[in-house]
Amino acid sequence: MSRLGPIYTLAVGVVMTAGLTVASATASPQIQETAAVPAAAGGADPLATPEATEEATPDATQEPEEVAAPEQEEDPTPKKADYAGVVDQNGGLIAISIRKGKVVGYFCDGKIEAWLRGTAADNTVTLEGKDTLVTAALRGGKAQGRIEYKNKSWRFSAATVKKPSGLYRATAQVRGARVVGGWIKLPNGQSVGRIMLGENSGEAAAAFDGGVQEWYGIPLTPQDPDQFIDSFLSPAAPAS
Amino acid sequence: MSHTQVAPQNRGAVAALVIPVLAGGLVAAALGVYGELHPPTGFAYGLAGFSGPLAMKVWLTTLAALLAIVQVFSAFAIWGKIPVRGSWPGVVHRWSGRLAFLATVPVAFHCLYSVGARYDDPRVMFHSIFGCVFYGVFVTKMLSLPKRGLPGWTLPVVGGLLFTLLIGLWLTSSFWFFTTIGVQF
User: Fold this and answer.
1) CA-to-CA distance for A57 and A153, rounded, in angstroms?
2) In chain B, how many domains are there?
3) Is residue B112 part of a domain?
4) Model confidence band, residue B58 (pLDDT cutoffs 50, 70, 90)
5) Number of CB atoms found within 10 A of residue B137's CB
6) Closest approach of chain B CAs to the CA of A95, in angstroms?
7) ipTM of the complex model
8) The domain at A75-233 falls in which architecture?
9) With an 8 Å Cβ cutoff, are A217 and B42 in contact?
């Protein structure tokens, strides 16, 4: 046996690692480009969820409709609004949905993600998630603000969006682990998403088309914020 | 590994192990420190052909574990514990070992670069520790192979340790995936 054989083996491993490092460091963000979402028309909603149709009609005004008797007559904060947009520099997407003062949000660039929860008042939203803090001002139909993720900070501007654009979340329980998927879809067809298996394993999601997403044979049914906000914000729900 | 019970005449032989063991220890410690300090990127380049990086890792680890079983039997043959004729067990042992090692490289790279070492869940904690120690022991074995006059137990012990660690890695990753998600490509 060549005395150098084992050294060559180690060297090949080192070279492979170096190649993977270079390839990974130069890989582009995992934002999926698909055809632009067609203008939402009543019958053309691609979402299979039964609740989809009632939301499909676009609102002509940028002021979101009120869904309940307003409790705070003075507060100009929208009672119901959905925002989604690109995070500057990072290139990922962020989505923020307001429902009667409660706010859910999601930030994802395919590689990193954060589920966010918070409050809205006086046209300002504040959201928190794991390693993440988001603050934004609501004006002119936009949410503009800053996201702090670990020790990084990026600005973003998210415009009002209507279904089928916006934020989606799906959860499923498999034997011994929880699967949580998150997706953001923009009106221009960009989408991003990530699916986590338990707390420690996850990967970027495929291009999002709105329907049931199959992930390793697990059917994931994306829900819009109207559907998931209560279970997501209730204390009983496991943090994700 | 305790060296205290080695007979005095073997002291020189054991001394030859110092550098391989030290180098292996340094590699294991370096991987652990990297896994702890490097901010996880959530993404790493890997092999194409699987539906996702999890599937890639699960199947490459399974390939390595199967090759590790080939390693055990070819090692038995080399040491005459299984009677075979010819020198092919040595060839099989070397090449199945190289393939197994190379199959683990994209997996470990994804683990350390994309995820990092974690200790918050027993499965992940044992997986992190086994993974770092595995490469340390592998370096020890590769540096021991060309050396003459090592104690006779060196390669069986180090090889057995590698097999045990790799099976532990498979159980805490692929086996977990197969029993949680199912057998998916």
Assistant:
1) 36
2) 1
3) yes
4) very high
5) 24
6) 20
7) 0.86
8) Beta Barrel (2.40)
9) no
